[in-house]
């Protein structure tokens, strides 16, 4: 390995390991080392989604053929109208939005409160509580289907939005993540507040929460995403379109028999489920990615 | 992250565990041992008034949602006191069964009428989840003799009628008329697989399609259509309760199937829906449900021919199984709801309604007296399905009465036709598995 | 003891270590006790009712011969466990689970780190690429599964068309169990890679600049700098990813459910448990036994990781 001699750091333009910005050598290296992997990675993500959108405009005849054409013959919205008349997508969308908003808001609040209690409040069995939370993280949600169905259906939660939301409200993941973050907060910031006579409630919301916004954003993001995409529980607890969420509604488009050429309709349905999330994600990505990146390294 | 589980903590953990265990005691099955199989008794529906509202759980087989909606509206117009909520309870028969059984566990949210497929109703019967319909048939004067006999008989067990036929199908042999013509073949389905084996190389040479024939997707009820081959070769998945899938004839049949894929290379295996592959021109012929007929006619850009299933070296008739779904009534709902449910079942089985359902989907008209002229004018191919009904055979017990057997069959067939597994060994393993299911899950529960 | 020192001591103890024993039930302690309960109890009750209760119910069910849908069941002790470990089911299901977990976790983490290095390059366009790479992580598993099913379709899929154009027949992704597993792993990695990449990127960006500069000045090349400085410093990130990706991989469900509904080739523990109860077998007791096995594995993995981490990984 050629070790360049240690140089004094100066503003010299002609440093050997840093060629001029526009030299052809630099350009080639930038493309190979910088852009190429980026472009490849981006294409791998974008192409399947683009394919989904293109296919959603194709007629069954254009899809069920071995003679593939990349672009649809025309922007044909039949698949969308079929998808939207077969199942009430508008309603699904609204239900998903309500379930996600309410579920995520409650979960994040509970996670903040529990994590604060675990870190900043004295309690004899704190570690036991924490272990119990950690263990809860490991209970696969599918395991809970049957017992929770029996309970929720028993108290009248079948085919209701609260029946979808309630069993998921307890949050082990958010609590875990925020506890890990709160542990890293410097003690000094709370001391001052305690001297000022601020109680726990005030310290929680006026000091701990404001300095933890990135971590809380992470938890919020992960919670929102999982609520929005949750599939098996809403599938089990609903059988009326009025209360179904988007992923459940999407599977309704699949049909067991006579499904000839239904790919176009399914892709249209997938577009209706995926694109709104992508749009929101694109608008908020700066905050979301920043939150996620800052939150996770502290874990 | 630092903590240690010392004894004090462990005890607290255990304490929390006990509390949760106590909480969990509610719900779940009764383990006291008093096996309650009371559903077999006929229920008396005299002086019962039909409920004002029932749910109808359907997966809309054969894209039947629209026609089901129409039937519901017609029923409500004819019976103003009863409201029927059409519920999409799943995308296929398995999902609907999953929901039905989950609802059984909670004993709440049960529908009045549920769509049940050929492989599910018997399990519901064993578990006491559905009621016998005999007293309802009598009270509502349902004309059983006008239903197609073989379809009604499919739901009889222990001298009781457990469901009524609804979206009933048989497999059909679909062929691409244009490909057959180009290959110089007669415009008909082959009468035997031997004949098709002669045709296949010609088809493959002239059609440009990838395959001459495509076996139905394994996930798409492979155990159903392959009964055709097994029967043709003089065997079956089972004979009565004897599992016969490892008999020499059965092995020969499956060996022939494997050879058509690997040795002669004119057959393929669909990965999702062979009727779609056929409609797209990937294969010149396939076997698929009659319920796919209307869909195939809509997508195919060529002339579609349909015919009876081919026979085998040992049997040419009957080699076609019936299949599809019926309608049943849960045991866990009130008599009022059960009565309303039976009225609805009677209604959708009326000759003109059965004809409308058939015309919209391609399923069999379940009534003998259904006037099919209008439907046949539009989709003449349905006539073939009706004619074939005369030469159908009741499915093998192993497939329809053993829980999970259909899936085990699909897995074994996958081993044979997609991984070139040893046929004899695979079928031998399958027999062991099926026998295990019978001994464990079925035999103890059958009343002698 | 002055108010200040007390506060300092408590803050110090609560930020890292289990606190020291102190006299119980002083007024202060009791108040803290109540504050703790007020803050944590709602969440804890929800977790107890909707996570622990089902867990213990499952342990109960696992000792029963119970057909889903049947009102009655029979107590059979450990027979379900004996059946599972005594039959072909155990090697098949555990093997599938191991392959799925090791490959999804391994590939996501290695590729994630590589993508993170690319994203860390000082070139324009990284912001867009970063969002793009992360996007699949937030998408519905059902939607993603459907889109990829269409791409993999051996008849009309884009992949089959591409392979045909270079003269290769499409593999039977859905029919051949090993290929089905491969397919699901590919899609799972596609969906979750961005998460690893973004977390690693954050790790890279938080590396102390002075250390890296000093290393560069000492003459360490880029590769060496990465292996002997960046990678060890990234160990907390790696641990965090390892624990989260293993946990989520062992619980991967939606993609398997949508893409391979029969689970042939893709029957991981969680999917087998689901299929045994809700698929066509309806063996609710047997299914519960499999979920208990899965839970035990998850528990062991976590305990091992925690032990390992306490000793090896350095925390900032």
Structure description:
The complex is a heterotrimer of chains A (299), B (448) and C (316). Chain A has 299 residues and is mainly alpha-helical. Chain A has helices at 24-56, 60-63, 78-86, 89-120, 126-136, 145-154, 161-165, 172-182, 188-195, 200-211, 213-229, 232-237, 246-253, 263-296. Helices cover 45% and strands 15% of the residues of chain B. In chain B, the strands form five sheets. In chain B, strands 2-1-3-15-6 form a five-stranded mixed β-sheet. A five-stranded mixed β-sheet of chain B has the order 11-8-12-7-13. Chain B has a two-stranded antiparallel ribbon with strand order 4-5. The longest helix of chain B is centred in the C-terminal third of the chain and has 20 residues, at 423-442. Chain B is globular, with a radius of gyration of 24 Å. By secondary structure, chain C is mainly alpha-helical. Chain C contains 14 helices and two strands. Chain C has a two-stranded antiparallel sheet. The longest helix of chain C has 35 residues, at 27-61. Classes of the chains: A mainly alpha (299), B alpha/beta (448), C mainly alpha (316). Chains in contact: A-B, A-C, B-C.
Helices, strands, pairings?
The complex is a heterotrimer of chains A (299), B (448) and C (316).
Chain A: H1 24-56, H2 60-63, H3 78-86, H4 89-120, H5 126-136, H6 145-154, H7 161-165, H8 172-182, H9 188-195, H10 200-211, H11 213-229, H12 232-237, H13 246-253, H14 263-296
Helix pairs in contact in A: 1-14, 3-14, 4-8, 4-10, 4-11, 5-8, 8-11, 11-14, 13-14
Chain B: H1 7-24, E1 53-58, H2 65-78, E2 83-88, H3 93-106, E3 113-117, H4 121-126, H5 134-140, H6 149-153, E4 156-157, E5 160-161, E6 164-169, E7 171-176, H7 177-182, H8 193-207, E8 211-215, H9 222-225, H10 227-232, E9 238-239, E10 242-243, H11 248-262, E11 267-269, H12 274-279, E12 283-289, H13 293-299, E13 304-307, E14 320-321, E15 323-328, H14 335-348, H15 351-361, H16 373-378, H17 382-388, E16 392-393, H18 397-401, H19 405-418, H20 423-442
Parallel strand pairs in B: 1-2, 1-3, 8-11, 8-12, 14-16
Antiparallel strand pairs in B: 3-15, 4-5, 6-15, 7-12, 7-13, 9-10
Helix pairs in contact in B: 11-19, 19-20
Chain C: H1 3-15, H2 27-61, E1 64-65, E2 74-75, H3 79-86, H4 89-119, H5 126-134, H6 141-152, H7 158-165, H8 177-205, H9 209-217, H10 222-233, H11 235-250, H12 254-259, H13 269-278, H14 284-312
Antiparallel strand pairs in C: 1-2
Helix pairs in contact in C: 2-14, 3-14, 4-8, 4-11, 5-8, 8-11, 9-10, 11-14, 13-14
């Amino acid at each position: 390995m050629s070790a360049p001699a240690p140089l004094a750091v100066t503003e010299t333009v002609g440093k050997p390991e840093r060629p001029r910005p526009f030299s052809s050598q630099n350009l080639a290296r930038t493309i190979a080392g910088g852009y190429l992997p980026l472009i490849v990675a981006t294409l791998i993500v974008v192409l399947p989604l683009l394919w989904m959108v293109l296919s959603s405009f194709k007629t069954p005849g254009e899809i069920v053929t071995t003679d593939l054409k990349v672009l649809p013959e025309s922007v044909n919205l039949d698949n969308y109208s079929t998808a939207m008349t077969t199942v009430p997508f508008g309603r699904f969308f609204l239900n998903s939005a309500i379930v996600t908003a309410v579920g995520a808001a409650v979960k994040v609040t509970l996670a903040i409160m529990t994590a604060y209690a675990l870190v900043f409040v004295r309690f004899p069995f704190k570690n036991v509580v924490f272990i119990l939370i950690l263990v809860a993280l490991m209970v696969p949600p599918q395991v809970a289907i049957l017992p929770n169905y029996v309970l929720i259906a028993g108290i009248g939660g079948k085919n209701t939005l609260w029946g979808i939301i309630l069993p998921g409200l307890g949050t082990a993941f958010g609590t875990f993540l925020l506890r890990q973050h709160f542990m890293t907060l410097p003690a000094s910031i709370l001391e001052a507040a305690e001297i000022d006579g601020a109680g726990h409630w005030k310290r929680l919301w006026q000091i701990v929460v404001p300095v933890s916004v990135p971590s809380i954003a992470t938890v919020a993001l992960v919670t929102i995403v999982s609520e929005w995409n949750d599939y098996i529980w809403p599938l089990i607890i609903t059988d009326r379109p009025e209360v179904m969420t988007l992923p459940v509604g999407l599977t309704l488009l699949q049909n067991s028999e006579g499904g000839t050429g239904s790919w176009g309709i399914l892709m249209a349905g997938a577009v209706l489920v995926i694109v709104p999330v992508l749009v929101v994600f694109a608008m908020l990505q700066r905050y979301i990615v920043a939150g996620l990146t800052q939150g996770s390294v502290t874990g | 992250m630092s903590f240690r589980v010392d004894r004090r903590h462990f005890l607290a953990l255990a304490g929390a565990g006990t509390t949760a265990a106590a909480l969990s005691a509610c719900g779940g099955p009764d383990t006291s041992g008093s096996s309650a199989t009371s559903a077999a008794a006929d229920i008396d529906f005299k002086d019962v008034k039909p409920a004002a509202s029932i749910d109808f759980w359907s997966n809309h087989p054969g894209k039947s949602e629209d026609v089901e909606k129409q039937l519901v509206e017609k029923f409500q117009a004819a019976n103003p006191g009863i409201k029927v909520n059409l519920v999409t309870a799943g995308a296929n028969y398995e999902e609907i069964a999953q929901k039905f059984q989950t609802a059984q566990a909670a004993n709440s949210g049960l529908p009045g009428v549920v769509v049940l497929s050929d492989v599910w109703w018997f399990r519901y019967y064993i578990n006491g989840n559905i009621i016998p319909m005999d007293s309802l048939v009598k009270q509502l004067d349902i004309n059983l003799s006008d239903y197609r006999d073989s379809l009604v008989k499919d739901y009889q067990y222990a001298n009781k009628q457990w469901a009524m036929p609804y979206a009933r199908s048989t497999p059909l042999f679909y062929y691409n008329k244009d490909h057959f013509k180009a290959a110089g073949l007669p415009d008909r389905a082959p009468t035997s697989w031997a004949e098709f084996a002669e045709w296949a190389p010609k088809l493959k040479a002239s059609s440009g399609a990838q395959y001459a024939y495509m076996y139905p997707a394994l996930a798409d009820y492979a155990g159903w259509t392959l009964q055709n081959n097994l029967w043709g070769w003089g065997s079956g998945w089972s004979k009565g309760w004897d599992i016969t899938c490892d008999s020499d004839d059965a092995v020969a049949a499956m060996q022939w199937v494997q050879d058509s894929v690997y040795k002669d290379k004119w057959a393929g295996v669909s990965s999702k829906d062979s009727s779609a592959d056929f409609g797209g021109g990937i294969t010149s012929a396939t076997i698929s449900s009659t319920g796919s007929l209307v869909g195939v006619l809509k997508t195919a850009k060529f002339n579609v021919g349909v015919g009876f299933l081919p026979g085998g070296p040992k049997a040419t008739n009957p080699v076609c199984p019936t299949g599809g779904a019926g309608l049943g009534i849960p045991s866990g709902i009130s008599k009022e709801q059960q009565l309303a449910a039976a009225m609805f079942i009677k209604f959708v089985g009326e000759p003109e309604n059965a004809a409308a359902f058939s015309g919209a989907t391609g399923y069999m008209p379940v009534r003998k007296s259904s006037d099919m002229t209008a439907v046949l004018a539009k989709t003449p191919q349905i006539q073939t399905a009706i004619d074939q009904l005369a030469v159908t055979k009741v499915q093998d017990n192993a497939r329809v009465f053993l829980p999970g057997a259909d899936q085990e069959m699909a897995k074994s067939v996958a081993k044979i036709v997609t991984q070139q597994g040893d046929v004899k060994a695979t079928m031998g393993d399958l027999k062991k598995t099926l026998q295990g299911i019978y001994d464990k899950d079925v035999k103890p529960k059958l009343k002698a | 003891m002055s108010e200040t020192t007390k506060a300092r001591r408590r803050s110090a103890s609560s930020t890292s270590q289990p606190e020291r024993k102190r006299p119980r039930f002083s007024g202060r302690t009791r108040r803290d006790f109540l504050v703790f309960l007020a803050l944590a109890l709602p969440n804890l009750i929800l977790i107890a009712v909707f996570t622990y209760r089902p867990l213990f119910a499952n342990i109960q069910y696992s000792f029963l011969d119970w057909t889903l849908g049947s009102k009655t069941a029979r107590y059979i002790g450990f027979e379900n466990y004996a059946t599972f470990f005594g039959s072909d089911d155990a090697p098949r299901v555990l093997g599938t689970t191991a392959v799925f977990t090791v490959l999804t976790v391994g590939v996501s983490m290695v590729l994630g780190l590589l993508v993170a290095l690319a994203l860390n390059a000082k070139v324009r366009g990284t912001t867009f690429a970063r969002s793009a790479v992360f996007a699949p992580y937030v998408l519905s598993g059902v939607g993603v599964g459907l889109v990829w099913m269409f791409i993999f379709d051996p008849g009309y899929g884009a992949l089959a068309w591409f392979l045909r154009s270079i003269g290769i027949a499409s593999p039977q992704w859905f029919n051949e169990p090993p290929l089905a597993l491969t397919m699901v792993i590919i899609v799972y990695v596609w969906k979750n890679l961005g998460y690893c990449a973004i977390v690693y990127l954050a790790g890279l960006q938080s590396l102390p600049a002075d250390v890296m500069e000093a290393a560069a000045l000492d003459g360490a090349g880029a590769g060496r700098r990465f292996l002997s400085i960046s990678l060890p410093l990234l160990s907390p990130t790696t641990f965090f990813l390892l624990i989260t990706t293993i946990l989520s991989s062992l619980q991967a469900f939606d993609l398997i459910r949508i893409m391979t509904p029969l689970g042939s080739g893709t029957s991981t523990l969680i999917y087998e448990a689901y299929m045994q109860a809700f698929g066509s077998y309806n063996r609710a007791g047997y299914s519960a036994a499999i979920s208990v096995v899965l839970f035990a594995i998850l528990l062991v993995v976590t305990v091992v990781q925690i032990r390992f981490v306490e000793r090896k990984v350095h925390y900032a």
